[in-house]
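Protocol step 4 of 5: obtain the predicted structure for the target chain.
Materials: sequence only (see below). No template structures provided, no constraints applied. The aim of this step is simply to have a reference model before the mutagenesis design in step 5. Sequence pasted as it appears in the construct record:
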Amino acid sequence: MEKNYSIKLILKTFWNSMKSYKFSLMVILITILVANIGAVITPLFYKTFFDVLSKSSPSEAHVPQLIHLLVIILIINGFGWLSWRISNYVNTIFQPRVKKDLETHAFSYILDHSYSFFSNAFVGSLVRKVHRLANAFEKLMDELQYNILGLLVVVVGDLIVLYMRDFKLGAVLTVCVILIGAFNIAFASWKLKYDYAKSLLDSESTAVMADALTNSITIKLFTSQKFENGLFTNVMERWRKAQTHLWNIEGIAEGIQAGLIALAEFAMFYVAIPLWQRGLLTIGDFALIQSFMVGIFQRVWNLGKSVRHIYEAIADATEMVEILETPHEIVDSAKAKTLVVSDASIRFDDVTFKFNQTRSVLNGLSFTIIPHEKIALVGPSGAGKSTITKLLLRFYDVESGSIMIDGQNIAKVTQNSLRGSIAMVPQEPILFHRSLMDNIRYGRPEATDEEVFEASRRARCHDFIVELSEGYNTFVGERGIKLSGGERQRIAIARAILKDAPILVLDEATSSLDSESESLIQAALDELMKGKTTIVIAHRLSTIMRMDRIIVIENGTAVDSGTHDELLAKAGIYKKLWDIQAGGFIE
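Step 4 output (structure tokens):
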């Protein structure tokens, strides 16, 4: 992405979150303008003050005039003080609201990205990018409000005054400001690539750390602490070198800027002395010039840091803005309708799907599931069974063909209505680090406590929950780590029971259960499947045999289907799989 294009997109993103608070923004800008105009006017009265002091010997006759000037200066400074207080107060309301809107928008947009997006992203890195976007806005606004805007007002105002005093003074200061400003902007632009590189390393270090902490048990099992420490140390060493390089070149830039400011101060007084010699300038003018130069060069000195901070903010925001500008892969069509499920029949019609150009998964897959039928998908690993359920949920879009539910193409209905009509119990259920009540109620947020308890009883998890010290208020840990695999599975089943969707998908739903738990849950699953169209991916013989029909999948196509007995009577793939499994279990 081109740099200028990135800046345009970043500013557009910030503006979209700011425009709801235009009044607050206007108040902030006006009060900052008033405060900085006061900084231009005040030195004019100091000029008169010093002129009065220098024109005669100390005398009581001049005291009222001097006090009058001091009162005016106090009033101007008072307005400036009040303006800054108002600006700061409004800013404490404005910036947090915009940052909140930025983060909530980024969070919402990321959530709507596709299954494949999250398959290729580090969660920890995404979290860091969202926070950096909001922090980049704060950094950018602080620099614009407190440095850039004030610098523009003061430089323009001071130049007008100096040009009115003498053209040479204004011209010298103009050249000096342009040179110093151009140097800072050019340097910051050149340095942007290093800021962006450091931001990438920052995201990488977050991703490496999050990945390792998420897999901490695996690391312990394989005693890989040293290896993981090495990976993290490597990325942090690269970050250190990038940060050190940035600080070094910033130090060089500050040295050059300090030299330019010293030369500018020399040039200003070199031009002013002959004018004073000719009587065109007074002592008060020298006080005025010095006051202007101190004010301008102090701000110009900060300009270097401000411009660098602005570019750093741009670099920090770029990664997240690029994600915000990445179109969602799976979107509702312009005329998408709400899916209406009456019979819950499902039809895959000549469906083709590839993960990439070289990996074909489904090849002209066709089958029909009649209303309330319970079917099992059976086939060797990699045949495409789980992909079928992901396509049904529209986690991916088919390349060709169609998937119909009650005669409605799922590509032409809203994703929410589609997924709201399907309950799924995955092979590895992932729970939120929330209470058990919250995790089960996720199936139907408006459910009452008693409905949650009933779903838990039917899933055979109520008894172990009430034995916990906090009962249903027990937090389960990240990804449900505090529970056993079987307990997590039963919580997921309770959630599906509570959802009570007309279509049910069970992807190895009993794979994590011991024999006792499976026998308890099997009855609950039978009850759950009543009146529902059910798709089951399973390898356990007991589960397969209970299905109305079995569809055999091989190489991405449905090669056979029938009941358990019908398929055993054929010398096909199912009989081979059965013989392997039955032999292993029975013997």
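Step 4 remarks: Residues 1-5 have pLDDT under 50 and may be disordered. The CA atoms of residues 202 and 239 lie 7 Å apart.
Proceed to step 5.
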